[in-house]
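Q: What would this chain look like folded?
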Amino acid sequence: MSNPSPSDLPQPTPTPEAIAPESTGSGKARQLLGMKGADAGETSIWKIRLQLMKPITWIPLIWGVVCGAASSGGYVWSLEHVLVAAACMLMSGPLLAGYTQTINDFYDRDIDAINEPYRPIPSGAISIPQVLTQVWVLLIAGIAVSYALDLWAGHTFPILTALAAGGSFLSYIYSAPPLKLKKNGWLGNYALGASYIALPWCAGHALFGTLTPTIVVLTLFYSLSGLGIAIVNDFKSVEGDRQLGLQSLPVMFGVTTAAWICVLMIDIFQLGVAAYLISIHQNLYATLLVLLIIPQITFQDMYFLRAPLENDVKYQASAQPFLVFGMLVTGLALGHVAL
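A: My prediction, written as structure tokens:
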């Protein structure tokens, strides 16, 4: 059964967040980054295409490649390695994350018409054929770069191509019916966490070293913290999710309980990684990781747990830098063991 169109649904009173701001320098910048509350006045098709790709979301994938290169123990500071790593970041961020965000906006056009009607597709700023062309160009380019990286690394089995293809398929079933994993708060958010942490980390590791089951399991475990981060993004669209029957965690459990689930996932699984580092005698790195978790807990109490709907963006801006630096600390610890 197809999703109901927005006109079939009871329309909520527009909130300030659901109304595009006036054309300002800040609004233009937010639009190009693909952030909520973007300016709706842009007419350049290339800037609109960039907004669909949400550059703000590329950062964790690019960082994941850095962490993977660090954990491999095989990365050296040479021009060749820098260029190859940059190509892997291009594949993970602008190309495949851009593909993921574009296809997600395509399948979310009904819900965006409720929550963010100023976004490119529901506002009519870009046509459906143009969107689909962008999806295919980004997907094919991402797979092509992954295959070229496999050739450079001399892989007998094209592991990077497999990771790129598998991640792209996961992105498709996350957004597209009939599976549409995002309809389920647990499956959808874990798929998102794994895509943003485990896949780019494994790609960076496989590019410069040997991808082992231990690294795969550890990054998937770390992705459970990413599940918590993904839940934060659900608080901005509770009303639209409820109307369209999407079972996000704030819809399933209520805002307060979902906020606690979110922060516990973020903290507990990072502490689990710290415990693993202690078990392999990387005590200094484990201590650094714990010290980076403490500010996250502080910001959770200051902002997110007290008012998750109002402070979700403020919390992410304050706490996530500590999480991503913790990822690098973990990568360096694993790379130290691999040497």
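The chain has 15 helices and no strands.
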